[in-house]
Write a structure and sequence with these properties.
about 325 residues; alpha/beta; two-stranded antiparallel sheet; 10 strands; about 40% helix
């Protein structure tokens, strides 16, 4: 496994992040534990989750699965850099209650204690804001985070789904307060969705944040979706916002060109999608959320995959980015 620093911190993390969103909803507890054991054995030390994972009536279930895994001992918790998130309402669907979501000091205090209990640990290494909270003053958020750091409940704070200007606002105010500020940003970023290159990634680099891309295969579209469709295994090859994307002729042509290119070079689409991200400036490591051991093994191979200049140039032709910032806003 290869490692890097998380942004401007002294924290060393693996260049592949184990995403746990499928643990509970898609993968049962026993198999989830096996996947975490395999990831740790392979050197993956960066695990990402969120308090809402488990979804619906089972919100918090994913954190519980991590907690029972940590409880097995064997230095599991000491070896893992643990990241979770706060923002979403933890009440059962249809039973949302005021102050049980977002980033008020009250909810942050409540949420971190609940996460620590589910995770069966005394601290969270990276506590991430799952979304911008437009209704809570940033001073209140940093005051709550500073208290948690002083209490030893969290070590670092990160953002997720923040615009570039929000990263700047958050860290400028943190610096004015004498707070350490954000150390990471978790954003959607992949070959098909490169908008982060315009402002989010430049802002993250300017302020010393590590960038942790989520949906690195764009809901499965970059994982060989058309090939799997032909093989009859396409029902689970795409998910979420990308489930119906192949019905768009332009998207389908793009994905077909991608798969044809990689077939020519004897490369696996899913591995290339992850490996490409590892070539991008400012990227700490993509989040891979495996449901099976086969998917985990594929993600591990991506870390070792070296893409040729020819392949990288062809990928840019198929999936052109927005161009350099700020030039892409003018000339």
């Amino acid at each position: 496994m290869k490692y890097t620093q998380l942004g401007r911190t002294g924290l060393k993390v693996s260049r592949l992040v184990l995403g746990t969103m499928n643990f509970g909803p898609q993968t049962n507890e026993t198999d989830s534990h096996s996947l975490m054991d395999a990831a740790l054995e392979a050197g993956v030390n960066f695990f990402d989750t969120a308090n809402v994972y488990g979804w619906g009536e089972n919100k918090g279930r994913t954190e519980e699965i991590l907690g029972t895994w940590f409880a097995k001992g064997g230095d599991r918790r000491d070896k893992v850099v643990l990241a979770t998130k706060v923002y979403g309402n933890m009440g059962a669907d249809g039973e949302a209650w005021p102050n049980h979501d977002k980033l008020s000091a009250l909810n942050i205090r409540r949420a971190v204690d609940a996460s620590l209990k589910r995770l069966q640990t005394d601290h969270i290494d990276l506590y991430q804001f799952h979304h911008v909270d437009r209704s809570t003053p940033i001073d209140e958020i940093w005051q709550a985070i500073d208290v948690l750091i002083q209490q030893g409940k969290i070590l670092y704070a990160g953002s997720s789904n923040f615009a570039g200007y929000k990263i700047a606002q958050a860290n400028e105010r943190a610096h004015q307060r004498g707070s350490y500020g954000l150390v990471s940003e978790q954003c959607i970023y992949n070959l098909m969705q490169r908008d982060a290159e315009m402002e989010v990634i430049p802002a993250a680099q300017e302020y010393g944040l590590g960038v942790i891309p989520w949906s690195p295969l764009h809901g499965g579209l970059l994982g060989g979706a058309i090939r799997k469709e032909r093989e009859g295994s396409g029902a689970r090859s795409t998910s979420g916002r990308s489930a119906d994307a192949l019905a768009d002729p332009k998207v389908r042509a793009q994905i077909q060109a991608y798969e044809d290119l990689l077939a020519k070079h004897g490369l696996e689409p899913g591995e290339v999608g992850l490996a490409w991200l590892l070539t991008r400036p400012g990227i700490t490591g993509p989040i891979s959320g495996p449901r099976t051991r086969e998917q985990l093994d594929s993600a591990l191979r991506a870390v070792e995959l070296e893409l040729s200049d020819e392949v990288l140039a062809s990928l840019d032709e198929i999936f052109p980015g927005p161009g350099p910032s700020p030039e892409n806003f003018a000339w």
